[in-house]
Amino acid sequence: MGKYNFDRVIDRKKSYAMKWDVKDGELPMWVADMDFETAPEVKSALKSRLDIGAYGYSYIPDEWYDAYISWWQRRYNLTISKDELIFSTGVIPTISSSVRKLTTPNENVVILTPVYNIFYNCIVNNGARALESRLALKNGRWEIDFEDLEEKLSNPQSSLLLLCNPHNPVGRIWTQDELIKIGDLCHKYGVIVISDEIHCDITDPDKCYVPFASASDVCRDISITAIAPSKSFNMAGMSTSAVFVPNKILRHKIWRQLNTDECGEPSFLAVTAAVAAYTQGEDWLNELNEYIYENKKYCEEFIADNIPDVTILHSEATYLIWIDCSILTGGKDDLAHFIRKNTGLFISRGGQYGSGGEGFLRINLACPRSIVIDGMDRLKKGIELYKETNNSI
Asked: Does 224 reside within a domain?
């Protein structure tokens, strides 16, 4: 029995939670935020901060830098210096600002698909084009097609590679060798890498992610890394993150653009939340990872035993599972909508994550076991009804 209680169900409907803006009877397991309270140590720090009562402007203290530096050195053996870190209100603002600064209209940003759907917004909304390099599914494991990736990077219009590390939605932790190959190809063709590492702390208990910037000197020099406590500690609403940019010239460009876009100043609670998480929340996070891993195992066993013709691909990282339903759907991307309409289970359709996602489902397991059990029962019911309706099996 652990120190923390992840079985407790909390009512988030009264907190303006986007995830829970659903009809009565519906069960949301879609957007990537957790249904757990954050670490008690973080709550305590935030309450103390709120007790001050005056909620004015804040600056970035040394404690903020020290918290990030210590966390990445301790857990991931990545050395970061204070002058290499920049505050940002979020990973997505960082990505958007970087695309805006480092591309001109109609240049390409290469992405490995299927991938987090908001990447497309960050690219297209800032005047660039998303150039997809499709991941290959080999023996139940997603792999990078390096031949195709090189073709896309060699395009003279390709300026950036937007990397998801670990990868959402497929759950891969990219190996050091894979990251080195990515870095070498990008260096060869003059492409800068933006590495979104927001999911880095949520891994299987026996796994550890490799920061892109730690893979090689080349990777370190050509990269912009977006990091944050938001997924790890369920504080996406705090608008707190950091950007790690070792290259001095690149760093100045990103710092300048973030400030131009007014994304470089912290809210009253942003610094406190991050510092508390990284200095006091490690035990909580380790127990969280154990709990999520057990949720994944439950789902893998349930699906294998109860839902024929559906394959769950084991996720090494993130609290998301990625389910292959392509045998049932025959290439259609209508299953998630059908399941929600007929069972109330609100999950994500794979097609929204780009090329290669059609026929898949993404389900968020960062919730108490009772919700996971309810979700799996609804998934089974929905797929059985889908088969009956479509006579697909």
From this structure: yes
| Number of domains within the chain | 2
289 and 225, same domain (yes or no): no
Average pLDDT estimate for 290-305:
97
pLDDT digits (tens, 9 = 90+) for 55-111: 999 999 999 999 999 999 999 999 999 999 999 999 999 999 999 999 999 999 999
Q: Which of 372, 389, 374, 386 is nearest to 34 (CA)?
A: 372
48: in domain: no
pLDDT digits (tens, 9 = 90+) for 277-294: 999 999 999 999 999 999
Burial class (CB in 10 A: 0-12, 13-18, 19+), 258: buried
Domain membership of residue 321 (yes or no) is yes
User: Pairing between strand 360-364 and 320-324?
Assistant: antiparallel
Contact assessment for residue 222 and residue 186, using Cβ atoms and an 8 Å cutoff: yes
Q: What angle do CA 288, 276, 88 make, to 5 degrees?
A: 100
Q: What is the DSSP letter of 315?
A: P
Query: Three-state DSSP class for 102?
Result: helix
CATH number for position 219: 3.40.640.10
- The whole-model pTM stands at 0.97
Rounded distance between C-alpha atoms, residue 44 and residue 140, angstroms: 43
* Residue-range definition of the domain harbouring residue 274: 53-280
